[in-house]
Design goal:
It comes from Streptomyces galilaeus. By secondary structure, this protein is mostly helical. The protein has helices at residues 12-19, 23-32, 38-49, 53-67.
C-alpha cells in the first residue's frame, strides 16, 4: 500500500479535474513565464488562468521546489 500524497501534490488530482489540463502543462506555463517570484506567479495564474489561490499556490510551490532541486 502506498503512502498518501502530501504537500502541494495532494492538490493535483483536483486541479486536473477542475481546470482540464494535466499538471505537466501547468508546470510548463509556470516555467515559461518571465515571472520568477512565488506570489507573482500565483497572482498571474489566478488572473490569467482563473485558478483559485490554493491551486495556484500548490502548482507554484511544487514547480519552484523541483527547479531548486527539492
Amino acid at each position: 500500500m502506498s503512502a498518501p500524497v502530501k504537500g502541494p501534490a495532494s492538490y493535483f488530482p483536483s486541479i486536473e479535474k477542475k481546470y482540464g489540463r494535466p499538471i505537466a502543462e501547468w508546470q510548463e506555463l509556470i516555467r515559461a513565464s518571465p515571472l520568477t517570484r512565488h506570489m507573482e506567479l500565483v497572482a498571474w495564474l489566478k488572473a490569467e488562468h482563473g485558478l483559485g489561490h490554493g491551486h495556484a499556490n500548490a502548482l507554484v510551490a511544487h514547480t519552484l521546489a523541483e527547479a531548486a532541486g527539492g
